[in-house]
Specification:
The chain has a 6-stranded parallel β-sheet with strand order 1-6-5-2-3-4. It has a single domain, classed as Rossmann fold (3-Layer(aba) Sandwich). The protein has 173 residues and is α/β, with parallel strands linked by helices. Helix 2 links the parallel strand 2 and strand 3. The structure holds magnesium ion. The site of magnesium ion has 7 residues, from loops.
């Protein structure tokens, strides 16, 4: 493990996950994608994934192995979203714990170096991914999030980790 800042994403996407260029992942040798759910695939408070995001998932699914890994304990809700996208999922994952992510790597049959995690939170998604050696990608919610708590946390994370604001917009290290 290098001295890399564990809270620093490899890539910061301006906008939601649907803005993420799959060619960038291809160029990095990525074969598997681990997707956060709340405020990544859909904004908190939304009941379904919007068309831009579902179209992106359908395209990504044709080329990469996708899993949803969520800390949300509401299994029925996550199962409904996962089924609508034809994706396998893990709920109550307890990120930044690496346990659920390790399980997904095993299911994918891929090494950490070929897997990216995509999420909206530094202290869960990005930290967990960096601890495991995944490519880490920070995105914004795909709509207005109803989670004041979530947006407050994101603002706090950016305040306490100002390096974030100057990170390059595309991963080129
Ligand atoms: Mg999230």
């Amino acid at each position: 493990m290098s001295t890399k800042n564990l809270l620093r994403p490899d890539l910061i996407v301006s906008g939601p996950v649907s803005n993420l260029d799959l060619g960038v992942l291809r160029g990095r040798g990525i074969a598997g994608l681990i997707l956060d759910l709340d405020d990544t695939l859909l904004a908190l408070g939304e009941q379904r994934v919007n068309t831009l995001v579902s179209d992106w998932v359908i395209e990504a699914r044709s080329e990469f192995t996708l899993w949803i890994v969520s800390n949300n304990p509401n299994r029925l809700f996550i199962e409904g979203i996962a089924n609508s996208l034809s994706l396998p999922f893990i709920n109550q994952a307890a990120k930044p714990s690496r346990r659920a992510l390790r399980r997904v790597l095993t299911e994918m049959g891929l090494p950490a170096s070929q897997v990216a995690i995509i999420g909206d939170r530094l202290l869960t998604d990005i930290l967990a991914g960096n601890r495991l050696g995944l490519m880490t990608i920070l995105v914004e919610p795909p709509g207005p999030s109803r989670a004041l708590r979530g947006s407050w946390l994101r603002a706090a994370e950016r305040f306490f980790f100002p390096a974030m604001r100057t990170a390059p917009p595309s991963g080129s290290s």
